[in-house]
Amino acid sequence: MLDKKMLPDTLPGLRDRIDEIDQKIQQLINERALCAQKVADVKVAEQGEEGVVFYRPEREAQVLRRVMERNEGPLGNEEMAKVFRQIMSSCLALEKPMRIAFLGPEGTFTQQAAHKHFGKSIVSAPMAAIDEVFREVESGAANYGVVPVENSTEGVVNHTLDSFRSSHLKICGEVEERIHHHLLISPNINAEDVTHIYSHQQALAQCRAWLDRYWPHVERVSVSSNAEAARLVSEAGRNGKAVAAIAGEIACELYGLQKESSNIEDHPENTTRFLIIGNQDVPASGSDKTSLLISAKNEPGALYRLLEAFERHRVDMTRLETRPSLISKWGYIFYIDCVGHYSDASCKAVISELRERASEVKVLGSYPVAVL
C-alpha cells in the first residue's frame, strides 16, 4: 500500500520525485510497447500475415479487470482502467492500427463509445447509417463496428436488432456510455442572445424539463445528430449568429465550442449500451454475455417452453426483446441476452434445447461483459 509518509515534505522535493516517477513510467510504457511489437512478430511468424488476429477482446477485458482489482488508489478504479485502456490502444496501434466504423458523423456519442472501448489510437470511420456500419465490417473495410443497441430512457434501437437477421457478423463486445448532454455555444457570442437551440430529437426529449425551466422561450430545432447541431453552431458562431447546441463532450472539443451549462439531461442515470461487431468468435474471458436470436414456432406455449430452458439450467436471462419476423403475419423473433459464454456447459445445454423447440436459433455472439 502506498504511504504519503514516504514522500518528501517540500514542494521542490515532491516535484523532483514526480520527475523521477514520470521517467520510470515512460520507460515502462515503452518497454510494454516493445513487447507489443514482439507479440505482433510472433503472431505473424506462427499464423501468417493474412490469418493473424491482433485484437483479442477477451484478453483486453481480463487485463482491465486485473487493473481494477489491484488498484489501491487514490485514483478510482475506472480512472485507472481508462489510463491503461489508452496505453493498450497505443501499443496495439504499433502492431496494426484498427479501422473502426461507427454511426456518425464525427462527434457523436457512438464515436465517444468507440474511444472508450478501443482507446483513441484507432482510425475512425463514421458511417451515415447503422446498416452501413454492418456493411463496412462485413466487407472487411473496417476491423470492427460500434452501434447503439439500447438506451436506459428511450429503449431498444430496433434498427440494430433488425440488422443482425441477415448479417453473419458476431457481437464481440459491449460498452456502456453515460449520456451527459451539455448546452454548447461559440466562444464569441453571449448566451443571453441565443435565439435557437439545435440538437437531435432524442437529446431534446432527454433535456425537455431542463429546457422548459431555463430556456422556455428559445426555439428548439431538431437536426440529424447532436454532432451536426454542434457543427451548425460552430459555423453560425463564425458568422456572428447566436445559436446553441445540445451535444456531448467529444462534439464540444471537435467543433471548438464552450459549455454554457453541463449535464443538463433530465435523468442523470441516462445510459446507452453499444455493441462491438466483428467477424470472429470471441473466446471466454471469465465474465461474459451471450446474445441469441430466436424464431419461435407458432404454437401455444412456445415462448414458455423457450424461457423454461433458461430457468431449469440456471442461466440468468438479462434481456428479452420482441420484433416482428417480417416473414409471416403476426410472427415474431426474440432477442435474448443471458449471462455466460456459449462454450459453458449450462449455456450449451440451453442452446441445444432451444434448437429443438424453436424454428431458428442464431448465436449472435459471446463477449466480455462491459468493463468500463
From TrEMBL:
Gene3D superfamilies: 3.30.70.260, Chorismate mutase, Periplasmic binding protein-like II. Residues 291-368 form the ACT domain. It is found in: Cytoplasm. SUPFAM superfamilies: ACT-like, Chorismate mutase II, Periplasmic binding protein-like II. It catalyses: prephenate + H(+) = 3-phenylpyruvate + CO2 + H2O; chorismate = prephenate. It holds the Pfam family CM_2. Pathway: Amino-acid biosynthesis; L-phenylalanine biosynthesis; phenylpyruvate from prephenate: step 1/1; Metabolic intermediate biosynthesis; prephenate biosynthesis; prephenate from chorismate: step 1/1. Residues 5-99 form the Chorismate mutase domain. Keywords: Amino-acid biosynthesis, Aromatic amino acid biosynthesis, Coiled coil, Cytoplasm, Isomerase, Lyase, Multifunctional enzyme, Phenylalanine biosynthesis. The record marks 272 as: Essential for prephenate dehydratase activity. InterPro entries: ACT-like_dom_sf, ACT_dom, Chor_mutase/pphenate_deHydtase, Chorismate_II_sf, CM_dom_sf, CM_II_prokaryot, G/b/e-P-prot_chorismate_mutase, Preph_deHydtase. Its EC number is 4.2.1.51, 5.4.99.5. Catalyzes the Claisen rearrangement of chorismate to prephenate and the decarboxylation/dehydration of prephenate to phenylpyruvate. This is Bifunctional chorismate mutase/prephenate dehydratase. It comes from Marinomonas mediterranea (strain ATCC 700492 / JCM 21426 / NBRC 103028 / MMB-1).
